[in-house]
From TrEMBL:
Name the UniProt record assigns to this protein: NAD(P)-dependent dehydrogenase (Short-subunit alcohol dehydrogenase family)
Chain ranges of the Ketoreductase domain: 2-169
Protein family according to the UniProt entry: Belongs to the short-chain dehydrogenases/reductases (SDR) family.
Pfam families, alphabetized: adh_short_C2 (PF13561)
One Gene Ontology molecular-function label: oxidoreductase activity, acting on the CH-OH group of donors, NAD or NADP as acceptor
InterPro entries: KR_dom, NAD(P)-bd_dom_sf, Sc_DH/Rdtase_CS, SDR_fam
Gene3D superfamilies, A to Z: NAD(P)-binding Rossmann-like Domain (3.40.50.720)
UniProt keyword list: Oxidoreductase
Length: 229
């Protein structure tokens, strides 16, 4: 069984469908409705609250069983100049983009270790976490997701829990539609493959990382960016 956070978004829906096609029962979690119809269950939770994350995973285990796979896809993005951020803006981005992945992975790892079971976690990072971003809090949060992946991939490996990440570039989703038009056009011109990616292409990479073919991969980041640097 797999849990996909941010399951109502463009990438989340594609990941849900891809994992369902691979044979998983998928529990989709988002703060709004809109899960892909292939989801086994759709739950509503605000993952920016660590207490809500703990409660959520307890409920999932009680109602649906212990997951073996977690995709940390929940995220928020605001196109905002660095000088315009408020403490509340900054905190929300970090709490959702990093905190949700941290505490969801912690909740699952505790349960898997107690049960003596292996598992797989995939975090959705971003090219912004590798090269920086004009949207500074978002870029910083995704850089933290990459560092979290590398750290957890190593620390949880002795327990048989693999932790990897994908780092998408520009993906054609409602979130990407909020990138200012001129900047989006400039990005497109720099992509060697000449186009934005599709959510399904990110989902395919995640399906691979969660599958048996990736059993020897952990603490790794897989770029899905059309060659953009």
């Amino acid at each position: 069984m797999a849990v996909v956070t941010g399951g109502a978004g463009g990438i989340g829906r594609a990941v849900t469908a891809a994992l369902a096609d691979a044979g998983h029962r998928v529990v989709s979690v988002d703060r709004t409705a809109g899960a892909d119809p292939t989801a086994h269950a759709a739950l509503v939770a605000d993952l920016g609250d660590p207490g809500a994350v703990t409660t959520l995973f307890r409920r999932i285990e009680e109602e649906h069983g212990l997951p073996g796979t977690l995709v940390n896809n929940a995220g928020v993005y605001e196109a905002r100049d660095f000088l315009d951020y408020t403490p509340q803006d900054y905190r929300r981005v970090l709490d959702v983009n990093v905190g949700a992945a941290f505490f969801a992975t912690q909740a699952l790892a505790r349960a898997l270790i107690a049960a003596g079971r292996p598992g797989s976690v995939v975090n959705v990072a971003s090219i912004s976490g590798q090269s920086g971003s004009p949207d500074t809090a978002y870029g910083a949060s995704k850089g933290a997701v990459i560092a979290l992946t590398l750290s957890l991939g190593r620390s949880l490996a002795p327990h048989g829990i693999r932790v990897n990440a994908v780092a998408p570039g520009l993906i054609d989703t409602p979130m990407a539609a909020r990138i200012p038009g001129r900047r989006a056009a400039e990005y497109r011109e720099r992509i060697p493959l000449g186009r934005f990616g599709a959510a399904g292409e990110v989902a395919s990479a995640i399906r691979y990382l969660t599958g048996a073919g990736a059993d020897y991969i952990t603490a790794s980041v897989l770029d899905v960016n059309g060659g953009l640097r």
